Every structure is written in structure tokens, then in C-alpha cells.
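Before a colleague's protein record goes any further, I have to sign it off. What it holds is a sequence and that sequence's fold in C-alpha cell form. My question to you is simply how this chain folds and whether the C-alpha cells agree. Thanks in advance; the entry in question is below:
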Amino acid sequence: MARATRRVEPDDVRDLLAAPPRANLAFRRGDTVEAAPVAFRHDDERYYVGVPRVGVGALVGPGEVVKLVIDDGVWFFDLRGAWVRGRTVPARPVPDGAAASLVWYEIVPDKTVAWDYGTLRTADDRGR
């Protein structure tokens, strides 16, 4: 039986990465996983997130394993997005247009996945 896939390459959703309607970051806090909306910038294959300061520090810190999710769409065939799993490092330099009120990190990816339900098709032997 043929399998269907909605998987695409991150370059196929480059316009979404340039101007995402929403971006959320999942991270560990103690024994739980939390998620929060973040500011996002994408620049030449680099993923930057701006996180609010809470108390005396930032929501997340350097060296943390995080998962960034960027998505778009309301209706089934409009659904598309990407997620990036990796570690945070302080952003140097801070991306253009970045809010100074946020703490900015670059996510160094371990894995990146992108999808676009508008491109549903039969998967090849690699599941793509």
C-alpha cells in the first residue's frame, strides 16, 4: 500500500520562516515541559528566538535543549510549518529588527522537519 506524506524541505516553507504568524518554544523546567510564544527571526539557515526576561533571568538559558515550532494555516490544506530541535546559544550578533527588550538566542539545530499539507502526495522509499 502506498503511503502519503506532507513532508517538505525547510527551504519549501522559507516564506513562512521569513514572516511567521506564530512561533512557540518548548523547553524543560525541572521535571516538566513548558511551552511559550517567542519572537522569531530566520536568517541564512540560522534560527533565532527572542524570549522574555522573567524575574532576574531569561525564560530559557544558553545550552538548553529546546524545540521551536513555527506554523501557519487554519484549514487542512493550509496547514504548514516547521520545527527545529536543538540547543540555545547566545545570539551574536542579535538579528536585525530584534526587540531589545528580549533575550535573543540562536538555536543550533540537531534536527529540522517541515510540512505542507497542501502538497500531500505518495511518499518515496525514504518517506518523503
Summary: The first helix runs from residue 14 to 18.
